Amino acid sequence: MKWTAGFLIVRVRPAGWRFGLVLPFPLFVIEEALEAVASIVRLGLWFGWRPPSRIGRFVAAEAMADIVRLPAAFMRGLRANGPLVLAEVVDANVHLSVRIV
After folding, report:
1. If you average pLDDT over residues 5-25, what whole number do you get?
2. What are the percentages of helix, strand and coil residues in the chain, rounded to 5?
3. Taking phi first (over 0 means left), then psi (-120 to 50 degrees means alpha), and beta for anything else, what does residue 47 get?
4. How large is the C-alpha radius of gyration of the chain?
5. 84, 94 in Cβ contact below 8 A?
6. Of 81, 82, 71, 85, nearest to 30 (Cα)?
7. Residue 34's closest CA among 83, 74, 77?
8. How far is the C-alpha of 99 from the C-alpha of 64, rounded, in Å?
9. I want to staple 10 with a disulfide (CB 3.0 to 4.6 A). Which of 20, 23, 43, 81 is the partner?
10. pLDDT tens track for 58-88
11. C-beta of residue 21 within 8 angstroms of C-beta of residue 98
12. Which whole-number Å values give the CA distances from 96 to 36, 41, 79, in the listed order?
């Protein structure tokens, strides 16, 4: 049985703090929110909404919903690959780590 990740955890510990600040973000909530945005864009396109001209020059209107779905697929891939460290920065002033657990 493969274990899937459930949270994006951001830890920030500034210099001089004994304990750091831990910010947990549930991955399924982020994934579902991205899927909802993609569904709203697809529904808007179905009703005839066209993207603004700045975006429309580079992206076809029909591809907008698929482009919005891409971050949700990325999040699904992160969840499937289990625990991993995305970033860890240690400086004289701060210790920052971003993990998927």
Report:
1. 90
2. 45, 30, 30
3. alpha
4. 18
5. no
6. 71
7. 74
8. 29
9. 23
10. 677 667 777 778 888 888 888 888 788 889 9
11. no
12. 30, 34, 21
Tell me the per-residue pLDDT of 20-58, one tens digit each, with 9 for 90 and over: 899 999 988 888 888 888 888 888 878 877 766 666 666
d(CA 10, CA 94) in angstroms, rounded, equals 13
Alpha helices by DSSP H, the chain = 27-46, 53-56, 64-80
- Dihedral, CA atoms, 90, 92, 93, 95, nearest 10 degrees? 20
The residues near 10 (Cβ < 8 Å, ≥ 6 apart) are 22, 23, 25, 96, 97, 98
- Amino acid found at 17: W
With a cut of 60, say whether residue 1 has pLDDT above it: no
Whether the model clears a pTM of 0.90, i.e. scores above it, the answer is: no
